[in-house]
UniProtKB/TrEMBL annotation:
The keyword RNA-binding applies. Residues 377-391 have a biased composition (Acidic residues). InterPro entries: eIF3d (IPR007783). It holds the Pfam family eIF-3_zeta. Residues 377-407 are annotated as: Disordered. The keyword Transmembrane helix does not apply. The gene is TIF3D1_1. Keywords: Cytoplasm, Initiation factor, Protein biosynthesis, RNA-binding. This is Eukaryotic translation initiation factor 3 subunit d. GO terms for cellular component: eukaryotic translation initiation factor 3 complex. One of its GO terms (molecular function) is translation initiation factor activity. PANTHER family: EUKARYOTIC TRANSLATION INITIATION FACTOR 3 SUBUNIT 7, EUKARYOTIC TRANSLATION INITIATION FACTOR 3 SUBUNIT D.
Length: 429
């Protein structure tokens, strides 16, 4: 079964001016070392990790609880009041979030298209995501050789699985007990609102003598060992149908966990590298990976946890050949490139067909609510106006009415993905 051509994550507009395209082959040679970051602020509140989760096995699986009333926030860089404050205090010249930085850091592992908005304001640089951006969802089987169904209303299409995976991750990250609060409350929550267990570490890295980068990094849980608090990141891999991976988790997780992990690393190389990069950015002491499966392959609303495994982020990064100097080398090269641009708005787009990223200059009102989009024809999008980079190869049982209604949602537009995931969460009792 041949993989269909992938589509661009954003419609390329006729008035956009393509400035450059960078093949991923140039990223592999990059290296840059950053000193240890400093914490500027810690906001939010975290639940303690429930250690009984470490004893879950396929034989004593546990239902994945739903946290329908908790609010999760996926706020972009320039909408973050803390980042605005830090920018006004000149704490740094470059601002981003861990989601955006990890997308850049792991770019060479990506197959699907993605985009990041870049804004040059005075001497400052802001990396943003669009409303309804695919960065709020999670890719599933992105690096697999086995293509997923094309029809968007199929529960196993890449889009449907992205919504399901984001929903699973949100709920998996909330399975703790008793909260500990930090210096400042959650900066995005209203008074009296029930919010997710999350802490935001606003951290600063020195990129050179007069350039600092500030990023908002997330951790989801905390443990206390010998009166010392350790931060954890919590992420869940999801099994949707073993015929796609060829590995049945309920049969293999206890006896061949290494083989299950190896298969996931092959099929989800980019997602797992991004999780690792985010854990490293947040200086999490441990990253917990949950193995979450559907109760039944055709039921994409109800899930069980089959196992939870913990890794030290640096050791796991080494295991998956994720080099921190290379990660920062990619970020530094993109920052240096963007710092040479004039003041204005730009968008970095991962080419849907080739291992490369393009940078476009876009109008100041691009991606705002009143911006009128007229997409270029598909064939014009795929062929850039300049010569292609040499040697760049193409990358390789629920209620029917409810299901159709759920899966008729589209990414982007006026419907934010975070709202969409919350609605998905509330769809089934």
């Amino acid at each position: 079964m041949r993989r269909e051509p992938l589509k661009s994550s954003v419609d390329i507009q006729p008035e956009w001016n393509m400035l450059d395209q960078i093949p991923f082959s140039t990223f592999s040679k990059l290296s840059f070392s950053v000193p240890e970051p400093e914490d500027l602020l810690l906001c939010g509140a975290l639940e303690f990790y429930d250690r009984s989760f470490d004893r879950i096995t396929p034989k004593n699986e546990r239902r994945l609880e739903r946290f329908k009333n908790r609010n999760f926030f996926k706020v972009t860089t320039t909408d973050d009041p803390v980042i605005r404050r830090l920018a006004s205090e000149d704490k740094a010249t470059v601002f981003a979030t861990d989601t955006i930085l990890s997308t850049l850091m792991c770019a060479p592992r990506s197959v699907y298209s993605w985009d990041i908005v870049v804004q040059r304001v005075g001497n400052k640089l802001f990396f943003d995501k669009r409303d309804g951006s695919q960065l709020d969802l999670l890719s599933v089987h992105e690096t697999s050789q086995e293509p997923l169904p094309e029809a968007k209303d199929d529960i196993n299409s890449s889009y449907s699985l992205g919504v399901e995976a984001a929903y699973i991750n949100q709920n998996f990250s909330q399975q703790g007990w008793e909260k500990v609060a930090f210096e400042e409350p959650n900066p995005f929550a209203s008074e009296g609102e029930e919010v997710a267990s999350v802490a935001y570490r606003y951290r600063r890295w020195k990129l050179d003598n007069d350039m600092y980068l500030v990023a908002r990094c997330e951790v989801q849980s905390v443990v206390e060992i010998n009166n010392q608090r350790s931060f954890l990141t919590l992420n869940a891999l999801n099994e949707f149908d073993s015929k796609y991976s060829g590995v049945d988790w309920r049969q293999k997780l206890e006896t061949q966990r290494g083989a299950v992990l190896a298969t996931e690393l092959k099929n989800n190389a980019n997602k797992m590298a991004k999780w690792t990069a985010q854990a490293l950015l947040a200086s999490a002491d441990m990253m917990k990976l949950g193995y979450v499966s559907r109760v039944h392959p055709r039921d994409h609303f109800n899930h069980v946890i089959l196992a939870v495994v913990g890794y030290k982020p640096r050791e796991f990064a080494s295991q998956i050949n994720l080099n921190t100097s290379n990660m920062w080398g990619i970020v530094k090269s993109i920052v240096d490139l963007c710092m040479k641009l004039n003041e204005g708005k730009y968008v970095l787009v991962k080419d849907p067909a080739k291992p490369q990223v393009r940078i476009y200059e876009v109008p100041p009102d691009a991606f705002e609510n009143d911006y009128v989009e007229e997409p270029l024809p598909e064939d014009e999008q795929v062929q850039p106006p300049t010569e292609d980079a040499e040697g760049a190869e193409p990358n390789a049982a629920t209620n029917d009415v409810e299901e159709k209604e759920l899966l008729s949602w589209r990414a982007g537009g006026t419907l934010n993905n975070n709202v969409m995931i919350m609605e998905y969460n509330n769809k089934k009792p």
